[in-house]
Amino acid sequence: MTIGVGGSTIEQALAKLDNMTQQVAPISNDELNARLQKAQSLMQQRGIAAMYIDAGTNLTYFTGLKWYKSERLVGAILPAKGELCYVAPHFEQGSLNDYMKLNGEFFGWHEHQSPYALIAEILQKQGINEGKLAVDPSAGYFLVDGIIKANPQLTVINADVITAPCRECKSDAEIALMQTAKNMTLEVHKAAASILKPGITTSEVEAFINQAHKKVGASGSSFCIVLFGLATSFPHGVKDPQVLQENDWVLIDTGCIVEGYHSDITRTYAYGEATDEQRAVWQVEKDAQIAAFNAAKIGQACEVTDAAARVVIDAAGFGPEYELPGLPHRTGHGCGMDIHESPYLVKGDTTPLAKGMVFSNEPMLVLPGKFGVRLEDHFYMTDEGPKWFTQPAHSVDDPFGLA
After folding, report:
1. What per-residue confidence (pLDDT) applies to 6?
2. Is the pLDDT of residue 5 over 90?
3. What is the DSSP string of 66-121?
4. Confidence check: pLDDT of 28 > 90
5. What is the bridge-based pairing of β-strands 358-361 and 377-382?
6. pLDDT reading at 1 higher than 80
7. Cα–Cα distance between 379 and 345 in angstroms, integer?
8. What pLDDT shows up at residue 369?
9. Using CB atoms within 10 A of its CB, is residue 336 exposed (0-12), middle (13-18) or buried (19+)?
10. DSSP 3-state assignment of 346?
11. Which of 151, 158, 71, 159 is nearest to 118 (CA)?
């Protein structure tokens, strides 16, 4: 199927999409409690007295409570031994209770009071007067600084030593949510390809993709990059929209969120006919993506996959390393409740690949002044090795295998 033949109107493309979230099951309270227990076990092993979990994905991951970051401290405290508790402005107590999935004692502070001093009081109440306090790695500097100054009796450390081991390996329930999200985005990709026509702008395609994600059951696109022609050689786009021309090169990178878990898929193809150079580079990209996938084995270091992709790219005359034309960034990133999270498929990341780890696989090729090719699918590690969430692009002329 050559893109641009037998296209659909926006209305027709949307009409073909259905809600794909009917069977979605949110993370259970039992799993949330198991996460807390694992975190406490890690804290005890590492001699950490307590952990402060800030509003954001870590708070949601461990407690199920969805709350936004702001200048006001909102979070939870988990002692190595003892019960979870929450700390937030007094006036937010009603809202927090409404969103709360796991019960815990609430400690509130008024606007003229210091939440950092309140943390000290909470810890003292739990019998923690000294030792290590692990602070959420995503907390803003002003929070960390405030906690340190108000708790001189404690040694404040990065809670990444707890959060990363907990979050890096996904459960079956997490994998299922990500599978749904990725299935949804792949269908949106197919629909987006069907509406392309000369004169359509990247902004119009982005708006359609947002609508399409809503049609399949998401709240919209979590992000969207649509590039035509020369703009495809800029990995994350350009500031001005482009207008599609006959035989233009197209790159679309987008995703959505299902119960807090991300999808992130990229397809690159020609609207019409690809040039010989585009075909050749597209195939190198696909071969590099497959090489990275095949190199992913339980126990191997994450960096091995990046090296495998670069062997293919270097052999084709690109690079070396990050030099252009070639691959200017890492081969992939971990993905879950954050679209980019540890570990990473990059030189220097020696984290052993383990069951449940999820990664993007996107060894993009950039030819400055010409075009770029990014093919991105995600895989997760099983006891038998890597498994694709979505099948890689079929061919440059039939990227979705619809012919």
Report:
1. 55
2. no
3. -----SS--EEEEESSS--EEEEEGGGHHHHHHH-SS--EEEEE-TTS-HHHHHHH
4. yes
5. antiparallel
6. no
7. 12
8. 97
9. buried
10. coil
11. 151
